[in-house]
Design goal:
This protein is α+β, with helices and mostly antiparallel strands. Helices cover about 20% and strands about 25% of the residues. α2 (about 115-125) crosses α5 (about 215-240) and α3 crosses α5. Keywords: Iron, Metal-binding, Oxidoreductase.
């Protein structure tokens, strides 16, 4: 496929509309052309445009004033701007937190032993979240990734703003999942980057400072990718499926990383660090620092804090992908989670999302559809779902409605 003079051309098709530019999406088959009145989406295969979709009068995304929360913290405010103050029902509810409960801890070194495999199965069925130890990612690499990420967030604002996240975008530095001027904001700064396959990367958004950031993230991502693949093989075993089931199904899996920084907040009872949501990935791997238990998981109607364990990684199964609801027809359930803030301590996390290739078609596996458990989800293209997820605000498990059969 080639782009010529602002127009999109292919060997066998031609779109005769003058465009302001074009963007490569996170799918190798999807190109988005920008025009002042239209958005043109081309779905291509081997240089042939097989589908075009023009959406007229696409409005520019206006998100209003979005303050950098670290800068707000540095100002020493005694309260927070209105856009961060949640409505009563949406505020952290201390009475609805089960502080004594703990999510399961899985020893990866003991897998695929029967006892640990059964613990993994119960964790997926009953929690959708678990921590892993003896996971094979070196502790020194975890420490280095955490330290460099913190160094990035401690840079002056003008340095971080060299890697801006566009309004409605999902890569770069800023606030993701913001789509309107009146939307409530999270008390969090983010740096989000596409990692694999290489076509989803936007090199201009990869920080050059700290000096070893890119090199370390590359090594870190390779190790975490390997862990995801090992865990999916074990999860397949818990479902009595061949270990290679998800590897073969996913194709060239997509991997992205998002670093979250939550500065202290003067009124933590009024804000959310990260809105309650479930993930659109197949599996998510979260590394959190030891400062405080800011991550909370919804279990039985109460919020359970995820207490940090030194050098453990937090794993959760995603919305509509392999070991989550769609492929298992609801047997393994994705779970809502959120982040809360602290008045005294900042908090840092590094989150990796691992998902099927965008051209993969997903739907419940035949093994999990019976007369007693009828099909609950339709078949769909993962790129189609991913586009729906990243253009929707974080709002519980609402994005999962995309795949449900009414």
């Amino acid at each position: 496929m080639q782009v010529d003079h602002g127009q999109i051309r292919t060997k066998k098709s031609f779109l005769p509309l003058k465009l302001d530019g074009w963007d490569k999406s996170w799918s190798p088959y999807i190109y988005v052309g920008r025009h002042h009145t239209h958005k043109i989406i081309l779905i291509c295969k081997e240089d042939l445009v097989v589908t075009t979709c023009a959406m007229a009068a696409t409005a520019e995304i206006k998100i209003g004033q979005v303050d950098d929360v670290q800068e707000l913290h540095r100002m020493g405010l005694e309260t927070v701007p209105d856009r961060y103050i949640r409505d009563g029902d949406d505020r952290p509810d201390g009475d609805n937190v089960c502080a004594l409960a703990h999510i399961p801890v899985i020893d990866v070194g003991e897998l695929p032993g029967d006892d640990e495999l059964n613990k993994l199965r119960l964790a997926c069925e009953e929690w959708g979240f678990f921590q892993v130890v003896n996971h094979g990612v070196e502790e020194e690499l975890l420490d280095e990734m955490e330290n460099l990420t913190r160094e990035f967030f401690m840079l002056p604002l003008e340095e971080k703003e060299k890697y801006p996240m566009a309004p409605g975008g999902i890569q770069g530095y800023g606030h993701a999942f913001v789509f309107s001027e009146d939307q409530k904001l999270d008390w969090c700064n983010m740096l989000a980057l596409g990692v694999e396959p290489s076509f989803i990367r936007q090199p201009k958004l990869w920080p050059t400072s700290p000096a070893k950031f890119k090199e370390t993230l590359e090594r870190y991502s390779v190790e975490v990718r390997g862990l995801c693949q090992r865990l999916l093989a074990h999860i397949a075993r818990t479902l009595a499926l061949p270990p290679a089931t998800f590897r073969d199904m996913f194709g060239e899996a997509v991997q992205a990383v998002r670093m979250n920084f939550y500065p202290p907040c003067p009124r933590p009872e009024l804000v959310m660090g990260l809105s309650a949501h479930s993930d659109g990935s197949a599996v998510t791997v979260l590394q959190q620092d030891m400062s405080c238990a800011g991550l909370q998981v919804l279990k039985g109607g109460a919020w359970v804090p995820v207490h940090p364990v030194p050098h453990a990684l937090v794993i959760n199964v995603g919305d509509t992908l392999e070991a989550s609801q769609v492929l298992t027809n609801g047997r393994y359930r994705s779970v809502e989670h959120r982040a809360v803030t602290s008045a005294e301590q900042d908090r840092l996390s590094v989150v990796t999302f691992y998902a099927p290739a965008y051209d993969v078609e997903l739907g419940p596996l035949p093994e999990f559809v019976t007369d007693e458990a009828p099909c609950r989800y339709r078949r769909f293209n993962h790129g189609e779902y991913s586009r729906h997820y990243v253009t929707s605000r974080l709002e519980g498990k609402k994005t999962l409605e995309f795949a449900k059969i009414n």
